Amino acid sequence: MSLCSKEKFIIVGIGEILWDLFPEERRFGGAPANFAYHVSALGHQGIIASRIGKDALGKEIFNYLTSCGISTKYIQIDPNHPTGTVNVKTDEEGHPEYIIKQNVAWDFFEFDEKWKNLARKADAINFSSLSQRSLKSYYTIKEFLNYTRKDTVRIFDINLRQNFYSTEIITQSLNASSILKINNEELSILIDLLDYQGKKSQEESCKFLVKKYELDLLCLTNGKNGSLLVTNREMVRHRGYKVNIVDTVGAGDAFLAALVVKYLEGKSLKEMSEAANKIGSWVASQFGATPLINEYILKELL
User: Fold this and answer.
1) Nearest 5 degrees, angle CA 282-CA 283-CA 285?
2) b/e for 111-150, b at 16 or more Cβ within 10 A?
């Protein structure tokens, strides 16, 4: 059976799961977790592979995921380290700033039998540089990728945060990836890290990365200005949708979820771009990274 003929895809977000601590409230978060949530909302098997502490915050995550109908089967419990938290502040335009706590549960992934079996059956796996900031989780994610099938789509959501990345981890991840998702600020950082001496327009930089790392697809997000999708044969730019922005936390994760689903369905770049920009814009107009998406909204979006 080809991937595009499957009724439901198994799409894994491996990496951080945590609580975003805003000045006024606490919200569920972590890019891979948000991604898996939106995959599930789109009707597929969005699975979170992560680790939480044996504490009250960890229990709250379990309860939240259960209430959303998302499996907790691949959430590990760490007896020695706390559940991850991030202090978040947003500016007047809804753009977030993060202070991410270190030495938390998701820095200590274990590649157990459950994760090994999950790697073998995954149709797509989404991972980032942030989730590889510790050696323990870096080696676990590397092993996870090694156990995936040849036809498994590997998405590298580069997710550069604070100083939690290195050129070595980024290049290794790019070499292991089918798809790169990156925003315009991260693109500038990456091009400088790679010491690319050619033209530095967005288009030329994206073409360079696609060719150098033999990527099937590069997705560049430009916030309210839409996106650019690039392959070795085609380039599609989208101007984005105008919405009243509440906060942009999770908008990129929703964008990526729709993009990956449409990619697995074998849709065109234009169709992927339309769906991804619609749902990303809608999430930016809502409170929180994982707003409830009802059937009417799904019909309007997709």
Assistant:
1) 65
2) beeebeebbeebbbbbbbbbbbbbebbbebbbebbebbee
Rg (CA), the chain: 18
Categorize the per-residue pLDDT at 5 as very low, low, confident or very high, splitting at 50, 70 and 90. low
C-alpha to C-alpha distance for 26 and 234, rounded to whole angstroms: 42
* Spatial contact of 226 and 187, defined as CB atoms under 8 Å apart: no
Structure tokens at 45: 């098997």
pTM over 0.70: yes
The two tokens of residue 124 are 């797509």
User: Quick one: DSSP state of residue 148?
Assistant: S
Span 74-97, mean pLDDT? 86
Q: Is the dihedral of CA 236, 177, 169, 162 positive or negative?
A: positive
Our CA angle for 174, 181, 101, nearest 5°, is 90
The closest alpha carbon to 236, from 196, 267, 265, 213, belongs to 267
Query: Which residue in 292, 289, 283 sits closest to 249, CA to CA?
Result: 289
Question: What 8-state DSSP symbol labels residue 103?
Answer: S
9-301 maps to which CATH number? Answer: 3.40.1190.20
Domain coordinates of the chain in residue numbers?
9-301
Q: Which amino acid is at 218?
A: L
What gap in Å lies between CA 110 and CA 261, rounded to an integer? 28
